[in-house]
């Protein structure tokens, strides 16, 4: 296994000529090696992020004008790059209409209030006046301006301004403007804002367009690198796919799960697209050992992250934001009737900017079923499991809610072991008799109250993930 080196080599393709012929009222497109011709009848969009096709090496640069030839599906476009005269495929979230606000450096569209705060506070250099504009979560007001500021103690925080739209124009803080750009220029002159924060790259749900539905990958396309971690069922390596995309490869140990069962579960996991869930790109299952190829999360698992120096720097607002991300991901699983069965800080991964995602949300069922087949009592995570899961093997969304409550205790205590100082067998007995973890001093009272709502004895009385998401979204220090 060599060192990972994801390069971005410049590759060129022969120029393309597009010949239009009419057959039975339809336009057919023929590509040959020549120059490309712009078709004025086709819609033109603007590229707002750099993107490189892994298969061909074709590049799309920020600012390029792209003519749409085909909407492949709801996530991918086939386009003609009017700058390079090449045809290729690009994700829809990498382009926008040239007349919309999306093209502006300062506009971040459907970014929530908490996401805006996380993004502004995680910039490499914190400067007063860093800002972004987003759609408001209050539909009646149109937009919101989020600005980085600091208080008398030089502690940075984010201030939000509502931007209303009415018949008179755009209204911000009692001032009226004709456009958002005019408002921004005015606020810059007044020193309220300085420069836009850096836009994050959109998330890629697929390695490329060809692997959206075909998720069997070739091992030859993966260059394995350093070992990231190892557990009972798999070891995880950093890897590079086609010398272009960093990924994580989970190499399953022999006989940890059946191949047929894994592929059935992987087909389900591939369909889930939510920012709170780890993205599965594909599998290598033709020979042993089986590979699961997933997105690479730079900071590893949340449990170790909470316990190291970076985790110790997290503020209460950061922890609340992480709680929202995970409850939102679990809410999505709940809506799809998928039960995780093994929710814990060790199964949550951390990327840059304190982004966290649930991992193994499809694999957990297979692994736990194997545990039960081998030895029902030997490998259950007792301290995270609901009583009905321990005693009756009843796994539901409500048993996941119980586990989420334990996860919250881990999160808000910076990685404390649940039920500290109590053995597993003692935990089982005491929880069955009604015992619940006491509140550590570091945990806010209202957060502890929410934990207790996750630990109701009767599953139907426990809080829902929708309610949990709403609580942490509205949480105020």
Secondary-structure map:
Layout: E1 16-23, E2 26-33, E3 44-47, E4 51-52, E5 59-60, E6 65-71, E7 76-81, E8 86-91, E9 95-97, H1 113-121, E10 131-135, E11 143-150, E12 156-166, E13 169-172, E14 175-177, H2 180-189, E15 222-230, E16 234-241, E17 245-252, H3 259-269, E18 280-284, E19 291-295, H4 302-307, H5 309-312, H6 316-335, E20 348-350, E21 356-358, H7 363-375, H8 387-392, H9 397-412, H10 424-432, H11 445-454, H12 465-473
Antiparallel strand pairs: 1-2, 3-6, 3-9, 4-5, 6-7, 7-8, 10-11, 11-12, 12-13, 13-14, 15-16, 16-17, 17-19, 18-19, 20-21
Helix pairs in contact: 6-9, 6-12, 9-11
List its traits.
Tyrosine-protein kinase, 4 domains, five-stranded antiparallel sheet, 12 helices, Phosphorylase Kinase, domain 1, 26% helix, 25% strand, SHC Adaptor Protein, single chain, Non-receptor_tyrosine_kinases, globular, tyrosine-protein kinase, 21 strands, alpha+beta, SH3 type barrels, ATP binding, 477 residues, ATP-binding
CATH architecture of the largest domain: Orthogonal Bundle
Going by CATH, the homologous superfamily of the largest domain would be Transferase(Phosphotransferase) domain 1
Name the helicity range: 25-40%
- Give me the secondary-structure category: alpha+beta
Mean pLDDT: 84
Cα-atom Rg, whole angstroms? 25 Å
Strand portion: 15-25%
Distance between the termini: 48 Å
CATH class of the largest domain: Mainly Alpha
Assembly state of the chains shown = single chain
Low-confidence stretches: 8-35, 367-378
Number of domains: 4
Q: Please give the largest β-sheet.
A: 5 strands, antiparallel
Tell me the total number of β-strands.
21
Question: Helical region count?
Answer: 12
Shape field: globular
Spatial sequence of strands, sheet with the most strands: 8-7-6-3-9
């Amino acid at each position: 296994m060599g060192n990972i080196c994801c390069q971005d080599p410049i590759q060129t393709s022969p120029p393309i000529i597009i010949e239009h012929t009419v057959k039975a009222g339809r336009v057919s497109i023929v590509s040959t090696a020549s120059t490309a011709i712009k078709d004025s009848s086709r819609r033109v969009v603007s590229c707002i992020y750099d993107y490189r096709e892994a298969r061909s090496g074709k590049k799309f640069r920020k600012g390029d004008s792209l003519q749409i030839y085909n909407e492949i599906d709801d996530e991918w476009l086939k386009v003609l790059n009017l700058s390079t005269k090449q045809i290729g495929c690009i994700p829809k979230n990498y382009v926008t209409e040239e007349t919309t606000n999306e093209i502006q450096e300062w506009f971040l569209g459907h970014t929530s209030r908490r996401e805006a705060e996380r993004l502004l506070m995680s910039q490499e250099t914190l400067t007063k006046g860093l800002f972004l504009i987003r759609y408001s979560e209050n539909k009646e007001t149109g937009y919101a301006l989020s600005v980085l500021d600091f208080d008398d103690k030089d502690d940075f925080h984010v201030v939000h301004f509502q931007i209303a739209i009415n018949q008179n124009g755009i209204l911000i803080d009692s001032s009226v403007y004709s456009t958002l750009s005019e408002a921004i220029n005015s606020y810059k002159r007044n020193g309220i804002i300085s420069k836009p924060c850096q836009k994050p790259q959109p998330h890629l749900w697929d390695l490329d367009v060809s692997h959206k539905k075909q998720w069997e990958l070739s091992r030859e396309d993966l260059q394995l690198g350093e070992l990231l971690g190892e557990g009972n069922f798999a070891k995880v390596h950093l890897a590079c796919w086609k010398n272009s995309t960093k990924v994580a490869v989970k190499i399953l140990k022999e006989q940890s799960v059946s191949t047929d069962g894994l592929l059935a579960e992987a087909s389900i996991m591939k369909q889930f697209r939510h920012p709170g869930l780890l993205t599965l790109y594909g599998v290598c299952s033709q020979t042993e050992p089986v590979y699961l190829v997933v997105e690479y999360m730079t900071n590893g698992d949340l449990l170790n992250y909470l316990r190291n120096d970076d985790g110790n720097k997290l503020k209460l607002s950061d922890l609340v934001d992480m709680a929202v991300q995970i409850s939102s991901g679990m809410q999505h699983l709940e809506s799809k009737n998928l039960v995780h069965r093994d929710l814990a800080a060790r199964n949550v991964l951390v990327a840059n900017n304190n982004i966290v995602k649930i991992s193994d949300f499809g694999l957990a069922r297979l692994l736990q079923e194997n545990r039960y087949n081998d030895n029902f009592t030997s490998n259950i995570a007792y301290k995270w499991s609901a009583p009905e899961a321990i005693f009756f093997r009843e796994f539901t969304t409500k048993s996941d809610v119980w586990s989420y409550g334990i996860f919250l205790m881990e999160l808000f205590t910076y990685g404390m072991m649940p039920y500290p100082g109590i053995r597993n067998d003692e935990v089982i007995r005491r929880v069955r008799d009604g015992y619940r973890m006491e509140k550590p001093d570091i945990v806010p009272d209202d957060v502890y109250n929410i934990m207790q709502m996750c630990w109701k004895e009767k599953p139907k009385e426990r809080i829902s993930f929708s309610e949990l998401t709403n609580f942490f979204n509205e949480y105020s220090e």
